[in-house]
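Researcher: Watch the backbone:
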Amino acid sequence: MSTPTRSSDYLIPKIISVFKEDYSWDRLKRDIVSGLTVAMVAIPLSMAIAKASGASPDRGLVTAIIGGFLISLLGGSRFQIGGPAGAFIVVVASIIERQGYDGLLIATIMAGFAMIIFGVFRLGSYIKYIPHPVLVGFTAGIATIIFSSQIVDLFGLTLQGREPAALVPKLTAIFIALDTISLPAIVIRLFSAIVILGLRKLKPH
């Protein structure tokens, strides 16, 4: 048997094999509902992440739609869910601030080639050699930067120029703009938080 060399040689057998493995219309309906559920979360989240990264919301929307289809089509698992990751806010914001959108595009293409190489040589398993404190510190640092990036919208601040990507310059710019606090913005944010927490309490599912 010859090894598939074209993308169509891989995709068509994969789609057929899915329907051969006891896949039914009932499961298809469930997948559609779960897909719509993920989309309801991923679309606004991707727009928010794009804005926090220094890009326009429409770029996040397009990325979420195209990326979602590609992950579902080319992913190795039938149960894999793909969506925007807040951890990339720090990386994307730094690239846009230093290199602009053209630099972001080049970096994305380079990252894609790197992912292909990692997959071909199965280098993902080496993540187990990264110390746990490093992963915890990385995650905590990202959470801190993401939280600080929400302060501007939370209080409706008006910054002078673009919001810095680095933490210390970002906090400095926020401190300078404290006199531009918007009361309506605070009320809207508090109302949104109450609605979210209330729905999670009353209708957790």
